[in-house]
Amino acid sequence: MPKTASIPIVRLDDVSKRFILHKDKSLKDRALYFTSRKQSRSDFWALSNVSLEIQLGETVGLIGHNGSGKSTLLKVIGGIIDPSGGVVERRGRVAALLELGAGFHPDLSGRENVYLNAAILGMSRPETDAVFEEIVEFSGIGEFIDSQVKFYSSGMYVRLAFAVAVHSNPDLLLVDEVLAVGDEPFQLKCMTKIRQFQLEGRTIVLVSHSADQVAEICTRAVVLDAGKVVHDGDVGEGIRTLREGYERDRVEAEQESAQRHRVTLAEPLTIHGVSVTDGAGVAIDGPVEPGTDLTITIDAQLKETLSWITGFTLANPLGQTVYRLNTEGLGMELPDTPGRYRVSFSVPATNFSSSQLVLSAGATTPDGHIIASVNPAGHLDFTADPSGAGFVQFAASGRIETSADS
Ligand SMILES: Nc1ncnc2c1ncn2[C@@H]1O[C@H](COP(=O)(O)OP(=O)(O)OP(=O)(O)O)[C@@H](O)[C@H]1O
Prior knowledge:
The protein is α/β, with parallel strands linked by helices. It is 25% helix and 33% strand. Among the domains are: 8-92 and 171-245, Rossmann fold (3-Layer(aba) Sandwich); 268-381, abc- transporter (atp binding component) like domain (Coagulation Factor XIII, Chain A, domain 1, Distorted Sandwich). The protein is built from eight helices and 16 strands. A hairpin with a 5-residue loop joins strand 12 and strand 13 (321-326). Helix 3 crosses helix 5 and helix 4 packs across helix 5. The radius of gyration is 27 Å and the shape is globular. Residues 19, 21, 44, 46, 64, 66-72 line the site of adenosine-5'-triphosphate (ATP). Keywords: ATP-binding, Nucleotide-binding, Transport.
């Protein structure tokens, strides 16, 4: 299949999906409002006004919190469920790998299910005959192909379903979280197959909770939040948006829980601010050139007598720590008496090759109990050093020697 840019294979215009929720009424409600109906109905919008175009050859990762609408969107894209409003257009052959076992009949054998599933995916019997052995080999199901699938493990289910889907010659492959169910060698096999699909210019849309997986294979990320698209585009940026949402939710949940319990825990330490300056003491406001000396300063107030450690972390958009430093690591002992302290860390000649890093700062007791955390405390854009690649760079050099006897 030739790789062709800018041909939409899927187009969603202002798509919404409503589910009707049935909730049991309490006896009190029924007595108060003299109603005999046991249930109340309410509308729930799992998707709201989603518009997107997916081009031929793209690999799109759908990410978002639990319940944000990812699976619903995947099903709408695949035509498995109809939207309540808006327009969905799709071209080409679709293979959808949705929730575990969907499309498999438990009483039929693996072999019978392969033929049934392949027929659902639009393959004729001779077409299926031609790839049957390949499907069985890819799935690694072996002799169990003639057992009823109700005796399969969840991994075996997924392996067989994925094998059928990828051998059905789809233009558009839709994959829900199911890949996580397979073991590591099988996941590797799936990744290799997905890469082959990408080279062949096929289109893939996958739902994943693994930021690493999305970063590794997707060319675009769509982030959903409560049924709405909150980011569509760059993968690293999308993962950052998602992580910031998680952090916001965590802080809100903590505040709510503190309010609910009406306990105002006196925090022993407050971080008032975190600043980043260069070697000349000038605040960093823009790209950081290779070789820049950085000073990270944590402004903290200790409110009671306590031993404490403070430090900072620089992480990439996937949340992986690229660099971490704290007072304990540097052998610094902080005063344990109440007061306001500015703790500075000097990091000379920095050379991070990751383009954007997230700065966070925190404080713990010596036994690791977190007493303050600021995340994110800032974002730093490092200008890439073209001499090498990887998380960090060094002042590297090279040399060529000519051997005298050549
Ligand atoms: N058939 C249904 N009837 C009623 N509500 C539904 C139905 N299917 C999904 N929902 C609701 O719609 C919302 C979105 O569900 P969806 O499965 O798309 O989310 P998700 O982002 O894939 O979640 P997860 O990460 O947990 O798999 C959820 O609140 C879910 O309870």
